[in-house]
Amino acid sequence: MASKDLVEDLCKFYEFTLGALPDREELKQAIQDTVTTEELAVFFMLPFAGPIALEKLESKAGKASIPASELRGRVNRLASEGFALVYDTPEGTVCERGNPIFMTEQQVRKQEETPQRTVYARFFDTVMERSAGAVPTKTPYYRVLPVEATVTRETESTTIVVDEAIPDPRGVLPLDIVSEMIKDASPIGVAECYCRKTKRIIGEGCEHSLETCLVFGPLAQTLIANNFAREIDHDEAIDILWRCEEEGLVHNVDNCMAEIQSLCNCCPCCCAVLKTWAQGLTNAGAPSRYVVSFDTDKCTLCEACISRCPTDARAIQDGHMVINPESCLGCGLCVSACPEAANRMVLRETQRRIPKTHDALYGKIGREAIVGIVKNKILGR
What we know:
The structure is a single chain. By secondary structure, this protein is of the alpha+beta class. The chain folds into 2 domains: 4-130, Arc Repressor Mutant, subunit A, CATH 1.10.10; 142-362, no CATH class. The protein has 16 helices and 14 strands. The strands form 4 sheets. It has a 7-stranded mixed beta sheet with strand order 7-5-6-9-8-4-10. A 3-stranded antiparallel beta sheet has the order 1-3-2. Strand 2 and strand 3 form a beta hairpin.
């Protein structure tokens, strides 16, 4: 079992990132039941953010009298619990400290029913319901990708606009086309949606599919190796995406132009990102670069779009369809649902800047978080 001091240090790491912890002692006990003293000692050797080469970590561990063979075992054990990421790069194997959200997500994804999994699920649900408004960042983690057919089919509204060429080893990626975003990704994994899994564990789940979170590259490597995701090929990934669209789920991808690591397919009943958007918050998820345009003459008030809209942006008032463009995510679900082609996707007049790479995105978010956390502590928030 982990020592009280190291578990306390880990709880403080959670608090630094998330603020006051709900049911702190219960969470602390779950951590003690999850990792050992020796494993937590290695966890705190990992950088606060970013990867470290395994060889460099071995050097640090050697100074603490930890043999290389034992270090590798502890690192692998941390990865198997979702407390660390381990993946290969062209320069060699690297290790990365998990952040509190990532660690909790993987505990929820475990298949075995245990008391600590339930504790992690309750904790995660409370954190999700508390909303991203408590997180002191401005740059959204995710952005919406529209239903592909709504921006690529040959109609007056479906010209694809790509803002700029993006230097990327896999080629130029159109910013809005889901199949192109994952075209050359390797490896590809699929994992259970941790939001829906959390709700199911606590008895509040919906009926949407569970295995809908796609992961790529380094993230896929570590999740597949530790049974948090299963490896799939490109064709199965595309099949999953199309099935998710049929279910009315919203594509949410890393808010960057290239080198994506995750693509979630979200429902408004469980998804933390969609819930924060519904609350008027914009620091967790960004809309797509598109917004819906509506032809009142074609509308028959069948209400198919209303039931499909994940943000309640549409309603019938005084016998007319009305749309709140401020609530529109630009997901395209209303376009694909309308039998009369009364809806179409058009580019937003104002476009947000999108970080070019995953590292650029999370580097920016990390800097915002540190500044925001320090500011909140100074102000006593």
